[in-house]
Amino acid sequence: MTRFDERLQCVSCEARYGVLEVRYRCECGGLLSLERKVGWARELSPAQFDARLTSRRAVDRSGVWRFREAVLGCDEREIVTHPEGATRLYESARLAEYAGIASIRFKHEGENPTGSFKDRGMTVATTQAVRTGARAVACASTGNTSASLAAYAAGAGLRAIVFVPAGKIAMGKLAQTLAYGATVLAVRGDFDDAMRLVDEASTKLGIYLLNSINPFRIEGQKTIGWEILQDLNWHAPDWIVLPAGNLGNTSAIGKAMLEAYEGGWIDKLPRIASVQALGANPFYRGFMGGFQERFRMQAETIASAIRIGDPVSWDKARAVIAKTNGVVTEVTDDAILDAKTAIDAAGIGCEPASACSLAGARRLRSEGVIGRDETVVGILTGNLLKDPEIVLKRFEREGGSRMIEIDPKIDDVARVLG
Ligand code: F0G
Q1: Which residues line ligand 1 (CB under 6 A)?
Q2: Out of 132, 166, 235, 273, which residue is the most buried by the measure of CB atoms under 10 Å away?
Q3: For the residues 141-148, what does the mean pLDDT come to?
């Protein structure tokens, strides 16, 4: 038995299953969560995690495994790490002004090994895949999960199969996925079709499923939240704002905050704000209707990472919004692109979906939901280079006046610079 008596537990009916059992849903159809004995977090302390910051061991340097007792009770030799996390927290006066907030910080998850926050969940779920004896792993993806899965599967020597919506994922993500050696099944349909297909394929063909419906993914992604707290010396911010698609990350950040609060690691619970694109907003619609109904839709948005109409982790995310006194908002594609341009121009940079954090914070501030003097941390989920086409297209539309072709002569330089 693990130190904290880990088990898989249904979020609906609370049925329990052993951690080494390969299953992604309860018999009742509910989502599964990795849970531990009552009061476990009180047996751990921030000081213990802080002490690891000066260590040179990979498991301490990893911003995931630094919190290992609270992530996965396994033998350290089993860990498949790259080592991920340990991303930077940026503060920008310009972006604070843009949002209308006194100060805003951004946790840049695009600084992970494959350029997105997915690596944090993937290191844990890949470790678990190996523990259960899996030979092949699969996921459906809008691109980042597939890139991350491909990299970690390569590291662990597992066969990688990814299901992506054909022609609908950003170029950088597709290139990474192929480069790391995965087999790519380009599904003629959207992400939601690919998700249903991989779900069925994993059960029927016995392939280990690495989507965020896999509770071990969520355990790794929790560490984004804990690292933010650690960066802030365990002073919780008032708000954590993040983009929302399949709702795995909303579920993970919420679980992290609730566990940190229950463990006494922080003395107040941050409010979670999930931000959806207007054309892919089923969760926002649910929130507006008091979550009486679960919405599904045909999704369309420029932010391809969150072009998702039937999010898998709905029930977990709904509970997070309720328990953290959180909110869900929506932003237009124009607002996303405008915020992305601001983040890029601040020299920080991110992919389109990530800019929902800033666009959402700005909207919530303008509505008075976020106060001017409240402390806000936005999560930038992916790297600018994931989707270079979107930058270049915008640049072309603007007339491209900052890229000027010249002859290799000093006179030309002087002439064009005026
Ligand atoms: N931001 C980026 C850059 C993403 O890639 C994703 C999800 C999200 C935000 C939303 O997070 O799904 O947990 O609510 N990308 C998944 C993928 C779906 O396949 O890469 P979520």
Answers
A1: 116, 118, 141-145, 212, 243-250, 305-306, 351, 353-354, 381-382
A2: 273
A3: 98
